[in-house]
From TrEMBL:
Cited Pfam families: DUF6596, Sigma70_r2
The organism's taxonomic lineage, starting at the top: Bacteria, Bacillati, Bacillota, Bacilli, Bacillales
InterPro entries referenced in this protein's UniProt entry, alphabetically: DUF6596 (IPR046531), RNA_pol_sigma70_r2 (IPR007627), RNA_pol_sigma_r2 (IPR013325), RNA_pol_sigma_r3/r4-like (IPR013324)
GO molecular function, one term: DNA-binding transcription factor activity
Species name: Paenibacillus sedimenti
Protein name, per record: RNA polymerase subunit sigma-70
Example GO biological process: DNA-templated transcription initiation
Domain of life: Bacteria
Gene3D superfamilies: 1.10.1740.10
Annotated RNA polymerase sigma-70 region domain residues: 26-76
Amino acid sequence: MNARNIIEETARDAYGRLISYLTLNWRDIEAVEDALADAFVAALESWPRAGIPDKPESWLLAVAKRKLIDRARRERVSERAMPALIALSEESQQMSSTDTAFPDERLNMLFLCTHPAIDQSIRTPLMLQTVLGMDASRIASAFVVKPSTMGQRLTRAKAKIRTERLTFAMPDAEELPHRLDAVLEAIYAVYGSGWDDLTGVDPRRKGLVHEAIYLGKLLANYLPDEPEVQGLLALMLHCEARREARIDASGSYIPLSEQDTTRWSTLMIMEAERCLRIASQSKRIGRFQLLAAIQSVHAQRARTGVIEWKEIALLYEGLAQLSPTIGVLVGRAAAVAEGYGMERGFALLESMPRDKIVSYQPYWALTAHLHMQLGRHEEARLAYSRAIGLCEDPSIRQFLYQQANQI
């Protein structure tokens, strides 16, 4: 593998760890991002000529710290700050020459991004960009805002961390649920971004699934008694257990209800069920536990050969009361249609707010499916056309084409 490929791989794998480690000491995210960008440029210039270092991440860390120190000297930071920065630089040099790896500070950084001084609406986007490496345009798309607007919001949030010198401190018992929710949402958003890349062709999403599960496990070890942490981990593991069954040998998408259960990972399913059992002991139900429970019912098909749609519909009903997002409402309609009849499911789809479903692809895919099942072929064609136009994944788009061609 050549130097450029190693640099690209290191950027994907270590960017979040490097940003978090540096930011927790420096408190200026934009300065850290600039310094790390300069370090990658230096690597592009140096590694092809001098060779790839034994520890690429430590090399980048040391260069980024030197860039920060140079910047501090130019800006004449306080005399008290400079010795600390020099000590950090010496520490990174020691890491480069030993087997010591720099600590993964992303969990700390996630909670820094939920500081009460940071506006609640920007906490999850800030985590997605700074800690988990998603670019602003993808974050803007996920939050249905213009990239320029999202960029401005992120810049303001970073400036607040710098100017107010916000520090990390674990929230107390009363504050924890409010700050923990944003952390869980960010980890789940990263998992979802990686999961949506069905064929694994988008280099920007490579490794996101594994990173999200790793952070979920890290959080579960840190907060073992928080049921929603266990619920999120169970949800991701249940979904990940089915990864190999999502596409066939030709790369075509296979819906969950039609997947070959022998291709599911039994070990992951068992681990997910263990997380759910731990969560149930708290007697505090939450969104991620219910989502994981739905996936648990699907997983039972590997043992029973059937899908208990009425049980899934009941879980979705509870989820809709707790968290009536558009995704939950569409999922409930699908489960009700399978468990209680297509007409009842379609009635739930029809009751959804029009402004919420205009650009939501799963809504149109389910609408098309139910129209087809009810014999309304022209309506099904129109809905399939809408779903295909909104679909980003080529495998799912091809599946929708095939369904539409059966009408």
